[in-house]
Every structure is written in C-alpha cells, then in structure tokens.
Amino acid sequence: MEETTVIGGGLAGCEAAFTLANAGCGVTLCEMKPRKLTPAHKSPDLFAELVCSNSLKAARVNTASGLLKAEMKLLGSLVVEAAESCSVAAGGALAVDRDKFAGYITNSIKSHKNIKIVSEETVTFPAKNAIIATGPLTSDRFAAAIAKKCGGALSFYDAAAPIVTKESVDFSTAFFASRYGKGGDDYINCPFTAEEYDRFYNELITAESVIQHGFDVYEGCMPVEVLAKRGKDSVRYGCMKPVGLTDPRTGKRPYAAVQLRAENADGSLYNIVGFQTNLRFGEQERVFRMIPGLQNAAFTRYGVMHRNTFLDSPKVLNHDFSLRDADNIFFAGQITGTEGYCESAVGGIIAAKFLLSRLVGKEQPPLPATTMCGSLARFISDESNLRFQPIGAAMGLLPPLDTNIRDKAARYEKLAARSLSDLTNWINI
Q1: pLDDT tens for each residue of 34-54
Q2: Could you give all domains of the chain from N- to C-terminal order, each with its CATH number?
Q3: HEC assignment per residue over the chain
Q4: What is the pLDDT of residues 224-252, one digit of tens each?
C-alpha cells in the first residue's frame, strides 16, 4: 500500500493518521510543533490540544453529539477512546482532563509503528495522497497555499472561556449541582439575585474589549459580552439560565446562574461555561469577579480569541472530503466547516477511510445520509449551499423517519438506532 501524508496534529489529523496506520498504511504526520506554535496553543509537544472548552458535549445517544460519538466508536475513533479514558465529571456531557486527553492521543500516535512524525511547518500544497487537517489555526504561509489551490478561504474569530481554581471559589455562595439532578453534582453553580444580575449585566456590556480586525465571529463561539448586548435577558436565557437549579440558601430557583465545569481529573480547575470572551484581561478579572462566589477567583487562563479559517467547502470538496479537482488530496477537520471537537475529528476518520479505499482500488459508497457523520459530509459538500457557514451535529440534519413519532425523546432514540444500524452496514460493505 502506498504511503500517505497527514498534515496537522490536531484532532482530525490524529484520527486520520491513526485510522490509516491501523490499516497497515505508512503515514508521515507533519506537525509544525514545537518549531512553531499558534496564538491559541500552549503545549509545545502535545498533539490534539484542546484550546477552547474541555467538553465534547452530550454523551447520551439520543442527542446529536452523543449519536456522533457513538458513530465514531463504531469507526474506531482514537479521540472517543481517549476521552472516555480521561473523562471528568460533567453531568450528562463527556468532558475531559485536557492534558491527560492530549497526552493519551500523543502517546498513541508517537508509539505507532506505522507513523513517522515530521516536526516542521508545511508551506507547499501536497502533490498526492495527503489529508490536510491543519485546522482553524492554519499557518499563514500554508493558508496562502491552500487559498491559491482552492480559490480562497473564509476567516472568523473563535473565543475561549476563562479557567479559575476551585480553591478560590466561595462555597458559602456557590454550590455543586447539575441541572435537574442529571449526572450527579458535577457543576459549580453561582446563583444571582435580580439586583446582582443587573449590576453584573451593566458592567459586562460596558467593559473594554480587545479590538477585532475585520473578521466575522461564528455564532456558536460568540463572546458573552457580545451576546449580552442583544438584550438584558439574552444571557439569562442562554449561558446564565437558572432552570433546573435550586439555591440551597433559599430553596428557590435563582434569578440567573453561572455554571463552572471541571477542567481536570483532580477537579482543581474549572472553566466558566459559556463565557468565551474578548474582554481585556484586567476587565475579565474585574467583571467576572462580580459573579457571586467568584469574588476572589484566581484565573489560571483568561478568555482569548483567535483566528479561525475554513474552506468554502461546497465549492471545492466531494462528499468524501476529497478535492473535486485533485481527488487524491483530502481535507479534514474544522477547516472543512464542521464546527465542534467531534465533528472535526470524525472528518479525519472519514477522509482516511475513503483514501484507504482509493489506495486499494475499492469503490466505497457515500456514507448513509441517515447517519450523523454522513449528514455532516453531505452538508459541507452540498453545491446548492451558497452562503456556507460552519455547522455542528444536529438531529435536524437527519432525514425524517418513515413513521411519525410525536414524542421527541422516542423519535430521537429511533433516529439513533437507525443511524447506528446503517453505519454498521456501511462499515461491513
């Protein structure tokens, strides 16, 4: 079997390299760390570094995110294997200790006998048998090479939430609980009265931000202060919604609430859920310490924003993530416009599976439209999509069932069962 090249050591690149290598294909994985880091990455030597949230979203199979992870397990996902091995308590979500998670994947890649690591920046477009998974932080020189080949790219900004230490949280105000008691007491909750919320809201919308430079912000990663400016209740019905929570001090639902989720297995670090931000660091300390229970918060990471780049995929990619005018070159990951950790990672598996088929001369049919991974592949390659924006997993992407089921939970269970059955059949072709 011919050797292949994978460019990028993020989630999608590691999935692609691992899938190819496990099939007996020799892989050269090109990753510019440690010679060059992006503004968002911190570790010089870990692959699959998570730069935003440490949550891979819902775990239940009757949710879009949970179904996607179940599909990835069927496809032999290294990312899901690592996440389950390095998980931290997060209610109904699958969240990870980000350092252990990245370490697990890094060790799996570096120890694989069929994978060779090349630590240098790629600056020229590959000639053949390659998967490009350089992600939303593709280096400027390689982004220029991609743009030249693919006719341009779109850019926007992404945001990350701050992380604070557990020991700095005031538990005379804050309390542990999950919404409606689901998954155990996995979140730290900071309850607001109406007066506390009013004061916090006014400071949030008037705080000083870092200047942006003409890029759009993807809706799913909109800074909290930008969301707040849409209306006084916009965040109270969003990341600060109090539903499903009871303040033990009053026995009542708070007016608003901020949740913190564990960042590591030790539970010593917590991120402020939904509080991705572009505020200046000093303003983050001033404003976020107005959150009840965080008045003495010790920040181990401030919220940051960084550039994201993605292709206008419907114009240039096939359903299997290959280039339309060079079908031995594949793209994978967030650069294709699949938004989210697992959505990006599964692209690496898909691209690798189709590249393997091509290398052995096998005709592999498209992924079933009834699967979450197949619906994502269809969306990013749909030529009728003239105003392409990144998308994450959603049950609405799946075609309807043959019979109408009014109960949403039952309907989603049926959709998930159909998806996993159809994907199993596709794998066994």
Answers
A1: 888 876 677 889 999 998 789
A2: 4-156+308-427 (3.50.50.60), 163-303 (2.40.30)
A3: CCCEEEECCCHHHHHHHHHHHHCCCCEEEECCCCCCCCCCCCCCCCCCCCCCCCEEEECCCCCHHHHHHHHHHHCCCHHHHHHHHCEECCCCEEEECHHHHHHHHHHHHHCCCCEEEECCCCCCCCCCCEEECCHHHCCHHHHHHHHHHHCCEEEEEEECCCEEEHHHCCCCCCEEECHHHCCCCCEEEEEECHHHHHHHHHHHHHCCECCCCCCEECHHHCCHHHHHCCCCCCCCCCCCCCCCCCECCCCECCCEEEEEEECCCCCCEEEECCCCCCECHHHHHHHHCCCCCCCCCCEEECCCEEEEEEECHHHHECCCCEECCEEEEEECCHHHCECCHHHHHHHHHHHHHHHHHHHCCCCCCCCCCCCHHHHHHHHHCCCCCCCCCCECCCHHHCCCCCCCCCCHHHHHHHHHHHHHHHHHHHHCC
A4: 999 999 999 999 999 999 999 999 999 99
Cα 40 to Cα 385: distance, rounded to the nearest angstrom: 30
Contact call for residues 317 and 323 (beta carbons, < 8 A):
yes
Report CA-CA distances (Å) from 68 to 63, 337, 406.
8, 16, 23
Global pTM? Answer: 0.77
Count other Cβ atoms within 10 Å, centred on residue 292: 22
